[in-house]
Amino acid sequence: MADELLTVAEMGRADRAAMAAGVPGPVLMERAGAAVAAAALARWSPCPVAVLCGPGNNGGDGFVAAHLLAERGWPVRLALLGEVAALRGDAAWAASGWTAPVERLETGVLDGAGLVIDALFGAGLSRPLDGPAADIVGEIGRRALPLLAVDVPSGVRGDDGAVLGCAPRADLTVTFHRRKPAHVLLPGRLLCGEVVLADIGIPDGVVEAIAPRTWENGPRLWGARYPWPRPEGHKYSRGHALVLGGAVMTGAARLAARAALRAGAGLVTIAAPPETVTLYALSLPSAIVLPAPDGAAFEALLDDPRRNAVLLGPGAGPGEALATRVLAALARDRSGVLDADVFTSFAGGLEPLALRLHDRWVLTPHDGEFVRLFGPLPGSRLDRARAAARACGAVVLLKGADTVVAHPDGRAAVTTNAPPDLATAGSGDVLAGLIVGLLAQGMDGFDAACAGAWLHGEAGRAVGPGLIAEDLPEALPAVLRRLKADA
Ligand SMILES: NC(=O)C1=CN([C@@H]2O[C@H](COP(=O)(O)OP(=O)(O)OC[C@H]3O[C@@H](n4cnc5c(N)ncnc54)[C@H](O)[C@@H]3O)[C@@H](O)[C@H]2O)[C@@H](O)CC1
Ligand SMILES: Nc1ncnc2c1ncn2[C@@H]1O[C@H](COP(=O)(O)OP(=O)(O)O)[C@@H](O)[C@H]1O
Ligand SMILES: [K+]
């Protein structure tokens, strides 16, 4: 499945470009409807079907699919929101191929149905569902009917996966040409069920011309630049990460350091408060643990240019001391990750960071931390992460079930492989460690954030139920072995 995600406007451009290149609208609609019918035939045994059509082209796809399923002998009832006479363009053409009755959109059309095809609204959804459309969506849920959604479950907004009014939960969603953000962002992703991407013959070259800026996160995005160890390499050629260790919450930096080592950093130094040196050293034999009693000692560690990537925040404790160390790291030519307590330390005061950040730094806030630093930005998680990256000049990774990575230049990726088992204390520290480990090996900020989030998700899946954060670094070798085998 292609990784690019098209906005509704970009998909409209793709449709128009295809038509301009000589593929007529009805041909696109015929192929879209045929893909819907094929998906129904592939997944369900013949059964009575209720096809629910809306007033636009999404409804047009429904008319085509209804016709093809009826041709195959499936008992089909079709109901339309509005009047046939009001249909325009390709949808009117599609309706003309349906000679059986067109029913009014009422819940009675669901009686006896073994499958519902939802072709009410797709890309054209412009306001919350109400009236008969909302009634029937509610009834589909109450009756728990199997559902195939055309393009998106009706009520889900294509650009951000938000639900306008209400939307049904589909078992299968058939979408066309490329997926939309709604197929990967929550809650849309959860309402789509399985997503099938159908080729409707939009010519090669259309996507390249549109040059989309959003992707599903996965190895195809960054795998070619993954920093596998080279035969002639040595530990000094694999980067050296410096992790600021806290005095009280020592687990966070320990998890992060371990993850940085597992990600392949050649060396990891933990800058530790003197009284904690033994603790850090005993629990992490492969890390270097050095005492850093004050800011000057930390700066001395930073001054060694071999320590090329820095992680600050996990377990560090918020406040002036952390803020000073962050600014010291940013004053040097390093890459790094800012996480956790950094966001509290700079709450409401982005400017000192924004002045110094650049795109070899990655900020990894969860939603709460994000608001603390960037304020309540409007829009979807994609919009907010993009706006934040632009505002601070660094890569922003907004954590959650649908983690978004955004670059200041507008590129963004949505991570879809993370299981909810990752929602456990310390899991974010591991993520920060993975990213700093990849940065130390020379990956750029966007690649490192995307790769780190994806590896984190895969490690989470490998462990599954019962996962605790300590398991994640240990799960990494098997994940990396598979990644390398597939490369
Ligand atoms: N050539 C094309 O443009 C193609 C379009 N395709 C299909 O066409 C769909 C997009 O078609 P449209 O742009 O016509 O949009 P839709 O069919 O999604 O809906 C547009 C219509 O619904 C009305 N509407 C929007 N929200 C409403 C609400 N909440 N309550 C009541 N009415 C509402 C609008 O006023 C408009 O009349 C895609 O999702 C896809 O399924 C496919 O056939 C492939 C080719
Ligand atoms: N429901 C979920 N599904 C998938 N991943 C999740 C979910 N909730 C949280 N996560 C992931 O778990 C990690 C939690 O990080 P964070 O909130 O910083 O925890 P901590 O500070 O305890 O380490 C993040 O990578 C986040 O994306
Ligand atoms: K739909």
UniProtKB/TrEMBL annotation:
Binding site for AMP: 399-403, 428
Sorted UniProt keywords: ATP-binding, Isomerase, Lyase, Metal-binding, Multifunctional enzyme, NAD, NADP, Nucleotide-binding, Potassium
HAMAP family linked: NADHX_dehydratase (MF_01965), NADHX_epimerase (MF_01966)
Organism lineage string: Bacteria, Pseudomonadati, Pseudomonadota, Alphaproteobacteria, Rhodospirillales
Reactions listed under catalytic activity: (6R)-NADHX = (6S)-NADHX; (6S)-NADPHX + ADP = AMP + phosphate + NADPH + H(+); (6S)-NADHX + ADP = AMP + phosphate + NADH + H(+); (6R)-NADPHX = (6S)-NADPHX
CDD domains from the UniProt entry: YXKO-related (cd01171)
Record protein name field: Bifunctional NAD(P)H-hydrate repair enzyme
Record-stated family: In the C-terminal section; belongs to the NnrD/CARKD family. In the N-terminal section; belongs to the NnrE/AIBP family.
Subunit record text: Homotetramer.
Originating species: Rhodospirillum centenum (strain ATCC 51521 / SW)
Cofactors that this protein relies on: K(+); Mg(2+)
Gene3D superfamilies in the cross-refs: 3.40.1190.20, YjeF N-terminal domain
Pfam families: Carb_kinase, YjeF_N
Cofactor binding: number and manner: Binds 1 potassium ion per subunit.
Gene: nnrE
Listed EC numbers: 4.2.1.136, 5.1.99.6
Stretches assigned to the YjeF C-terminal domain: 218-483
GO biological process, alphabetically ordered: metabolite repair; nicotinamide nucleotide metabolic process
InterPro entries per record: Carbohydrate_kinase_pred_CS (IPR017953), CARKD (IPR000631), Nnr (IPR030677), Ribokinase-like (IPR029056), YjeF_N_dom (IPR004443), YjeF_N_dom_sf (IPR036652)
GO MF annotation list: ADP-dependent NAD(P)H-hydrate dehydratase activity; ATP binding; metal ion binding; NAD(P)HX epimerase activity
Purpose of the protein: Catalyzes the dehydration of the S-form of NAD(P)HX at the expense of ADP, which is converted to AMP. Together with NAD(P)HX epimerase, which catalyzes the epimerization of the S- and R-forms, the enzyme allows the repair of both epimers of NAD(P)HX, a damaged form of NAD(P)H that is a result of enzymatic or heat-dependent hydration.
Signal peptide, first to last residue: none
